[in-house]
Amino acid sequence: MSQKILFKNIDEPGLATLDVYRARGGYGDRLRKALSMPKDALVEELKASGLRGRGGAGFSMGTKASFLPKGQMDKYLVCNADESEPGTFKDRELMQKCPHMLIEGMIIAAYAAGANKAFIYIRGEYQQQAEILERAIEEAKAAGLLGDRLMGTDTSLTLWVHRGAGAYICGEETGLLDSLEGKRGNPRLKPPFPANQGLYQGPTLINNVETLATLPHIIEMGASEYAKIGVQNSTGTKLISISGHVMRPGNYEIELGMSSRDIIYGLAGGPGDGRSVKMWFPGGSSSPVLTGDDLDLPYDFDSMAKAGTMLGSGAIIIVDDQTSVVDVALKTAQFYRHESCGKCTPCREGTNWTVKMLERIKSGEATPMDLDLMASVCENIIGHCLCVLGDAMAMPIGSMVKKFRTEFEEYIEMARARAERELMAGLSSAPAAQPHHPVAA
Amino acid sequence: MARNRPVRSSATGHLTGEGLQPVPRYAHGSRVPGWDDAVDLTKDPAGVPDPAVVAVPADLRAQIEDFMSRYPDARSAAIPALRAAQEKYGWCSPDAIEQVACVMRLTPGYLAAVAGFYDQLETRPVGHRPVYVCTNISCSLRGADALLASLQDELHDDETVNLRGFECLGACDIAPMVSVEGVYVGPVESPEEIAELARQIRAGEDPLPEKQLLRRPCQDPGAVS
Fold it and tell me: Region Disordered: what ranges (chain B) (predicted)?
């Protein structure tokens, strides 16, 4: 059993209240220790922990914090709680059950970055979680943990909860900033990066909920102790969300580097009923898929990258052998078509045409050549847009076509044969009826 | 090659032809949905509404002004303000948008663009009680499409309910799941459960209390010591 850091006694009754959280060491010595460290030393400590962002990109948290310019301007800290990546639901459990852990982490991050205004951008659908967070912030304010000169130090921090209104793209950091400024959530051109010009044009540090919630524990354990957990370049524990065809879907905290088979079969119970794993998304629906042959890969950032995919947000979706890959591909593509903000042409058009081509496959109008066309559309999206939403569709769809090409081809044949049969049956039973579409002579 | 070539009818300018389905069109002649009235290009675009002309209910005004005071830049209050207007009027109607624009000193066009971007802000008249069924990958692998269809059968005549399939709601552990006015419930699988849930939604009762997400313990066996 691996060590529990974030999920230790997560179901303790009343953990969402300040009293119980304090009794467990929250807002105590570790926070005082962090706030008494020089800012540079704190950033160095975060770098030394090796903590990588838990939202999807996996960038070093300490390095990101060090990018913010020094000086006396308004700086902002934004917590990205717009958890919309299909398959991901770890931040929800953290915010709902232990909101103060996030607030404490945000105090530490804001101090390290020199920010005095902070926002939690939570997705609009998480209504109950937003209410829990707001209650926790009120409690923390009343106890002098937020506001001017918090805990008797020179540091001040104002914290707001901002609810989104349902847009996947607002999980992209610059789209999130535009949305927080009261605009449509369209991504911005980078550079300038948010560290220089982010929210209200000021320097902004943006981190995921899980990343921020880990900070108090890093301070408590010390960076060197934390770095001993996990494997090289993937330190610490990670919350993973397992869903799809498994017996025990849910959130689990694992040490990075654990075998994928132990996660999928050991923790989540596998697909069950004598079924086997056909395909799995290792890091949310945006990650290129892996097959049942890849189950022995260690689950960490570098091993996943070596296998041509990514750890992403740590959301594992399992698809069993009784499901058609075409159905999964269509669902995936439909989601990205709906969520594309429309700003960049390759993404707006590419997601739309990929859906249309997959629908042709389903209705029996496609030929195997359409698979090459689809692969080419996907290739032309990647790297050609302001943000990675289009890439996030192109990568999994491209990998499905590559790894399951035979199945796609068989499906195309089968669907064509079925469509032809239906057409002939319709012609012979009702000779007067005209088909809706002109038939090739 | 020449068979069934579409021809352009001179009366409507729309494509017609033997063997072709007529294209469904909206009242303004477009194939894409939009406001049913065509834009009048001879008019100037609407400016910031005049507070002397637009009546804003006092409670809505107070709510919006409170949101505006909370942010370093008042414009950040656009989404909370539109949400408040939607809660009051059931949807972001042109009148509702004009009232928000009047308080926030923005143009209605700006706010309509914002409202049109977000899935939870409704720019068409719908039921005021949102019921979302997640139909994304994980939920659809576990039968979400059938769940949505059954709920649609049960609730299609209730005009107060805005039932729709939704993007991933972030609760794949309780798939297939439903968000009833922000309360997550799941897994909703058996026909009896679906019928009971539909009855509770209709009656405005607490949906499937024992299946609500907030009562679900963490699945990690090591989380309990």
Answer: 1-27
